[in-house]
Design goal:
Helix content: 25-40%
Order of helices and strands: HEHEEEHEHEHEHEHHEHH
Strand content: 15-25%
Distance between the termini: 27 Å
CATH class: Alpha Beta
CATH architecture: 3-Layer(aba) Sandwich
Radius of gyration: 18 Å
CATH topology: Rossmann fold
Number of domains: 1
Number of helices: 10
Shape: globular
Amino acid sequence: MFTPPFIEKLQFAKKILLAGMGGGFDVFCALPLYHALKAQGKQVHLANLSFTALRATRAREIEEGLFVVSHRTPVTVGYFPEAHLSQFLHEQGHDSTIYAFEKRGYRQLHAGYQHLADALEVDTIVLVDGGTDSLMRGDEDGLGTPEEDALSLVVVRDVEHVEQKLLACIGFGVDTFHGVCHAHFLESVAALTRRGHHLGTFNLLPDTPEVQFYQQALDFTHASMPDRISIVNSSVLGGIQGDFGDRHYTERTRGSELMINPLMGLYWTFDLMGVAERNLYLDDLLHTESMGDVWRAIERFRNRLAEIRPWKDLPF
């Protein structure tokens, strides 16, 4: 009872890759895990499916579509959260290396992940989703922003020579902004629980060193990119700090109604292979060469469905 299965699995891990699966700022959602695991003396590496135009930067490409970002990488573009996070890590005395995956199709992303898993000899990969739409199976009313999540999921499913593959979601409620029905998310959690793939849920508390590290990293990056405030991470940290209701942290959300709440600070954790097994369209992504291909593959799958499951309001 006192040790969720997810934590128990990480206790046995020695070399861990934490990867933001949905792109953008998702890697920041892994920072509390990063801080805690590093404090235990484990080898921990950070990666992210990047929204940055990596070829327009001076990051070093080590495999097709896979780039190394460090504190020495100059910031030559306006949007580059990985570079700012790398600088923050360096100033905190950590290894500043962040591996950034270019937004490409299945073949390129799989090759990048496989190269990284082999080179780092990782025994565990944890995909981290800022939000909960990675649990949508494909036939729900709203899928949120599924392209990056689904592609990361199928790619890591197929990576070889890795003992453990895990998934952690944080930010319950934030995907309402993207049209996700959270009754469908809870239905997915229930289905994964029945199959033994739900590995526990645990929350982050504001005064812990892990959360303070997370907050400092986000503040540092926001100060460097003030016009690109992360909606997801700001909402998650707002929920952790006790904000509630229709709170806005960036002008980008003005005009919409948000529901900041304490559940946003929960990590929901799962066996990745179980989540992938339940998804209805992952194999449709195997021949994609670009994110456009991924989007079209999902649209074709949706068009073949006899029925889309309608929105459900939560009765509380």
